[in-house]
Amino acid sequence: MRELETAATPAHRFSAIGLTCAMLAAPPAHAQDTRPWIVPDLLAAAKAEGDALTIYASMNEEAAFPYWKVFEDATGIKVSFVRMSDATLQSRIAVEYRARQRTWDLVATTPAYRIPDDILLQFDPPEAKALIAQARAPNRRWYGVYGNYNAPAYNTNFVKTADLPKTYEQFLDHKEWTGKIAIDATDSEWLTGIFKHYGEERGRQLVTDIATALKPVVIDGHLNIARSVGAGEYWVALNNYVPLTINVKRAGGPTDFWALDPVGLAFGSVGINTQAPHPKAALLAANYMLSREGQQFLTKKGRLPTRPDVETNPPGVMDILQQKKIVVMISSAAEQRKMQQTFKDIFRPR
Question: What pTM, to 2 d.p., does this model score?
Answer without folding.
Answer: 0.84
